[in-house]
Model the fold of this input.
Amino acid sequence: MSEKEQIKRGEALLDTIHGLIGEEMNIMVSGVSFDIRRVGRAMSPKGENYLAAGVGLAEFLISDKPICRGTRLMLAELVLGELRNPPRKPTMHPSHPKVIEAVGLYNHMIEKEGHTKESAKHHVYVTLGVPRSTLADYIKMVREREEAVARAKASLKSPK
Done:
């Protein structure tokens, strides 16, 4: 079997595992789940000592305790490398395109079209799908960045 076929087979296995693992998680012993995920994190480039992370899992595997299907599925994920780098939520910052677009539209609605703040927030939600609370966070980020830039410019202009 070629490497490409093996990769496809591995991806198909992961899809199957993801579908099944939710059903089996309630049967698993929580400590084992934690140990498996800890080993997965240790496999990442900046992970903790792999040997230290694997002690709990190794003790469980060596013991006479039965291994349920959920544990087997998580071990399969571990072996296939799926638990190495868990997906993370992307970090938003004032210069992120989505932040710029949402705050720009909000400011345009208030300054150019004369909408109230609430009306502008609703328009951004309807147009871009950005919830009001998230938009408030974006606005705060942008305002803080603008204030920091203004302070920096002022400090450069002021004589010492």
Remarks:
- Confidence is low (pLDDT under 50) at residues 23-27.
- The first helix runs from residue 3 to 24.
- The CA atoms of residues 40 and 84 lie 4 Å apart.
